[in-house]
Amino acid sequence: MDERAAVPVTLPRVNPTISYWQDPPDSEVADYLSSEQVPETADTIIIGSGITGSLVAWNILQSADHGSIIMLEARQACSGATGRNGGHTKAASYRSFHDNAYSLGTETAVKIARLEYDNIKAVHAFAREHNIDCDLYSGDTVDIVYDQQQWDNGVKSIEAMRKAMPELLNTVAKYTSWSKEEAREKFYVKGEECVGAISYEAGSLSAYKFVIGVLKMALKKGLELFTNTPATKVDKGEDGIWCVQTSRGVVRAKRVVLATNGYTAPLCEKFQGKIVPLRGQITAHRPGKTQPIGGLPTTYSFIYKNGYEYMIPRPQGSKYEGDIIMGGGLVMAKEEGLEEFGTTDDTTINEDISKYLTETTPRYFGSNWGKDHEDGRIRKQWTGIMGYSPDGFPFVGAVPREKNLWMAASFQGHGMVLCFMCARALVAMMSGDDEKLNSWFPEAFKVTEARLEKKFMGRLHTKPVDVEIRL
Ligand SMILES: Cc1cc2nc3c(=O)[nH]c(=O)nc-3n(C[C@H](O)[C@H](O)[C@H](O)COP(=O)(O)OP(=O)(O)OC[C@H]3O[C@@H](n4cnc5c(N)ncnc54)[C@H](O)[C@@H]3O)c2cc1C
């Protein structure tokens, strides 16, 4: 993994694979340019137009004295991880709670679980409040578990959550367990035999459409957007003003926000090996012939010994309703996916992962999948670049020893349940209003020198259940 973490991170590549969500791209915003050249100065420069950058812009724009805001995007609008993800707003907090409580204490583990839950609720509420048409589904999800150890870990972690947050038994800590027989009937998993299933509140949306909606609202409030405009260098002048070089000229500003996720290192060297790109892959399956009429009842994950897949049936009424979005399969690639770390190449797919993901639907659903659609099982497949940190948490706040350089990046495969609240927290910090954050924002997410010392070891694995935590 050391070698992979040391691969020099590049800027976003040209000609990425085309994701399901960006086909076609939004005709108004995808290639938006506020002007041919960037202005000479701005109050704030945001680099990156994914869910983080767009919501940082939106939050800044809520204050009366927001000043001028420029957003730079290397490719089309929202064409990083957000425009290429699964769109699962699924926290699965019980899968990390035990580990978080073990390494950071129960209080922080509760804060993280609450933030994830609140983030889901906030994204769904925001989409509804602003009428953003993004194929939103708010409802249950299920984890179909195929490995006894994973099942035991889950059960014990849920018990720990219930003890630690008795006042949240109907929200954050609400889980329902199902036997393997119940799982077969209720969730149609008539293929490979599972240990059991766990269901809870979650949702899904087109993150691309959501962000395009946010960007349109931000543009109306004065955001200046420059797509297809990579920021190539970020330097501080002697006067303390930041100078950002772009393909459309140089812009200077009092403050800069890096919302660059897996691509942060080329602009801020101290993140080389600390935010490591990881390529994720997704296949969109046309529904099998015996899939239940009216669609599947929830979104899914399939959890096995050393990995997982996540699956989102496209909701009724959406384009290609009933299609199955299936992502994951990392550990099925050569050396458990080692070569997917450190790469920013989302212009190609990994053939091993492609083959594996293609076979998942009939394997999990068995007779409830049936014959393939006459146009073939796979409608589309694509890749996208995530940003992974050594401790598995995002970096949110001021970049150490750099005045007025801010960041919110490294959201692993989990940004749909983190970025909304992290953007809110970052803007509070930038406004000097961060005292109120202590009650809900985990210190563990802030950017510290100590976190930058940590060594990147890959995706973190959950600790066995016999590792005791103090409640
Ligand atoms: C295949 C895949 C599936 C996923 N599925 C899920 C899921 O189902 N649920 C979930 O919670 N999370 C999922 N994730 C993770 C989630 O998508 C991310 O955590 C989240 O989108 C991060 O958002 P962001 O805005 O911080 O980063 P991004 O969306 O990556 O945005 C960063 C932007 O910065 C731009 N940029 C970078 N460098 C520069 C530069 N120098 N100049 C100009 N622009 C620049 C990039 O082009 C990009 O548009 C998935 C990710 C992938 C790749």
From TrEMBL:
> Which cellular component terms (GO) are annotated to the entry?
cytoplasm
Which InterPro entries would you find in this protein's record? FAD-dep_OxRdtase, FAD/NAD-bd_sf
Q: Which residues form the FAD dependent oxidoreductase domain?
A: 43-428
What is the name of this protein? Answer: FAD dependent oxidoreductase
What species was this sequence derived from? Hyaloscypha hepaticicola
Lineage of origin: Eukaryota, Fungi, Dikarya, Ascomycota, Pezizomycotina
